[in-house]
Amino acid sequence: MVYRAAAAALIVYDITDQNSFDEVDYWISELRSKGPEEILIYVIGNKADLESCRVVDREVAESYAQTKGVFHFHSSAKTGQGVEEIFYHICQEELKKSSIKETGCKNRQSTVDVSNSTNSDGNNGGHRGPCRCQ
């Protein structure tokens, strides 16, 4: 499978479908047995925009993820809710891992400042909002 060299894996279940949540355990086991030892595993409850139709209890899912030692987030592929947060978290965790490997120090804080990013043309490549290119 593709996850043999993966840094992170996202296991996505549908919060409106108990069967999809029941399959999460299989995928965690699969990743732990065949994936890299240091893989970051994320369990994502999708369809957060359908909260009124939820059948998978939020607290149960979060408690389950905690007992398995994996990260748990909620998202909506339809609205984009939570998606940026998930990928930001993956990046932060990868920075921590690479910092530990390079320095051997777990206490070093790694950050990336993208607030004033510019590209080679001097345009504001990291700016959110209207394009400032001419």
Automatic annotation (TrEMBL):
One of its GO terms (molecular function) is GTPase activity. SUPFAM superfamilies: P-loop containing nucleoside triphosphate hydrolases. Keywords: Nucleotide-binding. Residues 102-134 are annotated as: Disordered. It comes from the Eukaryota. The keyword Acyltransferase does not apply. PROSITE patterns: RAB, RAS. Belongs to the small GTPase superfamily. Rab family. PANTHER family: PTHR47978. This is Uncharacterized protein.
